[in-house]
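By way of example, what follows is a protein record of this kind.
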Amino acid sequence: MSVSQILGAGFTGLDIINLNKKMYLPGGSCTNVMSILANLGFKTILMKAKYSDIWDSFVDNKLISINVKPYIFKRTIKETPRVVETIENKCHKFYTTCPQCNKYLIDLVLPSKKDVASLYTVLSNSSMLYYDRLSPGINLLIEKAYKECVWTFYEPNAARSYNTLLSNALRSNIVKFSTDRISLKVANQLLLDNNTIESNLKVLIVTKGDRGSLVAYREDDSFSDWISYESVTNASMIVDTSGAGDWFSAGFIYKLLKQAPSPKKIINNSIIQAAMEEGVKLSSECCLHIGALSCLFHDNNSSVLLDNNTPLCSFCYRVR
């Protein structure tokens, strides 16, 4: 059996974890999911811009070391997007703006239509397009994926406009989000509207942290009711929940593609149950480690890149 290939587009960057010790890891939901799937044996291609700072090469080298193939679609003078994780009052906090140099840390570069033209063959040879952001180029890939019968998996990070979320969700095969970002009320409305509007949606997943997860899926022409899955994480063993949702997504994709390599395949409760259980399992295991991808890398420091003469912001490690 040939190895499935997955193309990822969206949030790619650097995680700076400043807890008991500093760790520097590739980060962003799209990066995390592609990295985990590569570890599970899939061929993964990650679309990303070539940023101008030293961290860009650091991220690329780390990804290549675990068999994720970066596909550079554009060069930019912007710096590598990053998120800084700290512990404050025993709670994990994530910074997207640096409190020291006041720099917004996620100035993400996404592909235009012309940036993705060379990826059509890659997409047609893939089993899935995963994306957590949208741009004109990613929208074009979604259209191509539909024509090529390639699975599309959309993980929206917010819902600023319900109508926009609805439009984007209904052209995707699989949509997953957390109630931390989008409410269950919105998810219920999506299901309701999905049954009255022409739609490509086959699976809708809602994760609720330690309260478990929900899934509804299309079998033949109708959608199921919500099916509930409990979290299996022992709360006393949780070290860090960052990245748990990405491990869930990767686990779901892993099992789904093993049983349904094409969206033409009619999915049933057995397929969904196996995929959901794998997602819950990997999500729970992730919580036993600090950092979303720390368990995939043996060396999490950047000593090979930085020296005492490099002028850095002491919080976000941006080269001044």
